DNA sequence: ATTATTTGACCAAA
DNA sequence: TTTGGTCAAATAAT
């Protein structure tokens, strides 16, 4: 199985999910652009993201959200802590403080920051307790005008998804690839479970290394993909029975230029 | 009743 | 001592 196949399938499933919802909306003549636009975004973004995985078995850095402007994404490693675990850290700017990233979070603190007129909010993974997931994030408004901008900083990797997935696979106890399939009825699904991706515009993406900086130029039709296997593409736990089985994806026929 | 958020207290690092 | 991050009791929401 090529690297990223799971995420590709997840992205395709999200696209399918949004396509269903879009179909339902259109059938009921609820042609409200506010309702439809996010669905179009999700469909397009999901397929684009999945295709980007097919286009490279070596995943690239972070993706951007359609909720956010194509602001630079900063990915950096925390300084080493004398042999202690190094936590990866990513920052992401968005005009929407409740930007959907596909994960479930629990707020555990809020603090006035000296250098800012806005408070900083602290969140940890909703599964931090039962699955010992150490992932956290901080959200803070960093700009008021001309438009508000919120910076979300993610600290640490999610391990909750991996464990849940393995657990479910064990339950099934056969060799098939299993993909969770949340969508049974096509009623509204919380936006939080629909990570949204968008093409990054001509902006440069800055990646700060520990001792050097690297700048990547992106064309308007290119997509940047996070290299963290779990980053931003977790589907939260679903009701039992909503599964889809696929044959071993290693047999998938990959023709990048014939898609 | 259970789960999530708020908010002052506490703590460690600078 | 100041500051930012986390804890945990109180409160709110479901």
Automatic annotation (TrEMBL):
<keyword id="KW-0539">Nucleus</keyword>
<feature type="region of interest" description="Disordered">
    <location>
        <begin position="59"/>
        <end position="83"/>
    </location>
</feature>
<dbReference type="GO" id="GO:0043565">
    <property type="term" value="F:sequence-specific DNA binding"/>
</dbReference>
<feature type="compositionally biased region" description="Polar residues">
    <location>
        <begin position="59"/>
        <end position="70"/>
    </location>
</feature>
<dbReference type="InterPro" id="IPR044810">
    <property type="entry name" value="WRKY_plant"/>
</dbReference>
<dbReference type="GO" id="GO:0003700">
    <property type="term" value="F:DNA-binding transcription factor activity"/>
</dbReference>
<dbReference type="InterPro" id="IPR036576">
    <property type="entry name" value="WRKY_dom_sf"/>
</dbReference>
<dbReference type="InterPro" id="IPR003657">
    <property type="entry name" value="WRKY_dom"/>
</dbReference>
<protein>
    <recommendedName>
        <fullName>WRKY domain-containing protein</fullName>
    </recommendedName>
</protein>
<dbReference type="Pfam" id="PF03106">
    <property type="entry name" value="WRKY"/>
</dbReference>
<dbReference type="GO" id="GO:0005634">
    <property type="term" value="C:nucleus"/>
</dbReference>
<keyword id="KW-0238">DNA-binding</keyword>
<keyword id="KW-0804">Transcription</keyword>
<feature type="domain" description="WRKY">
    <location>
        <begin position="94"/>
        <end position="163"/>
    </location>
</feature>
<keyword id="KW-0805">Transcription regulation</keyword>
């Amino acid at each position: 199985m090529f690297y990223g196949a799971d995420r590709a399938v997840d992205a395709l499933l999200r696209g399918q999910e949004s396509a269903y919802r879009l179909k339902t909306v259109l059938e009921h003549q609820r042609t409200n652009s506010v309702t439809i636009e996010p669905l179009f975004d999700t469909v397009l973004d999901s397929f684009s993201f999945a295709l980007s995985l097919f286009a490279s078995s070596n995943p690239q850095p972070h993706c951007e959200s359609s909720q956010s402007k194509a602001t630079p994404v900063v990915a950096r490693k925390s300084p080493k802590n004398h042999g202690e675990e190094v936590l990866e850290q990513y920052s992401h700017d968005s005009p929407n403080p409740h930007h959907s990233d596909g994960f479930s979070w629990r707020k555990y603190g809020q603090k006035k920051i000296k250098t800012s007129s806005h408070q900083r909010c602290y969140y940890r993974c909703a599964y931090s307790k039962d699955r010992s997931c150490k992932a956290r994030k901080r959200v803070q408004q960093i700009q008021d005008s001309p438009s508000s901008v919120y910076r979300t900083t993610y600290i640490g990797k999610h391990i909750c998804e991996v464990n849940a997935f393995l657990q479910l696979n064990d339950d099934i106890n056969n060799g098939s690839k299993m993909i969770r399939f949340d969508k049974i009825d096509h009623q509204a699904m919380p936006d939080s479970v629909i990570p949204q991706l968008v093409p990054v515009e001509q902006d440069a993406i800055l990646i700060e290394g520990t001792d050097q900086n690297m700048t990547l130029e992106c064309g308007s039709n290119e997509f940047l993909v996070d290299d963290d296997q779990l980053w931003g593409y977790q589907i939260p736990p679903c009701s039992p029975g909503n599964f889809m089985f696929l044959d071993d994806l290693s047999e998938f026929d990959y023709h990048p230029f014939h898609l």
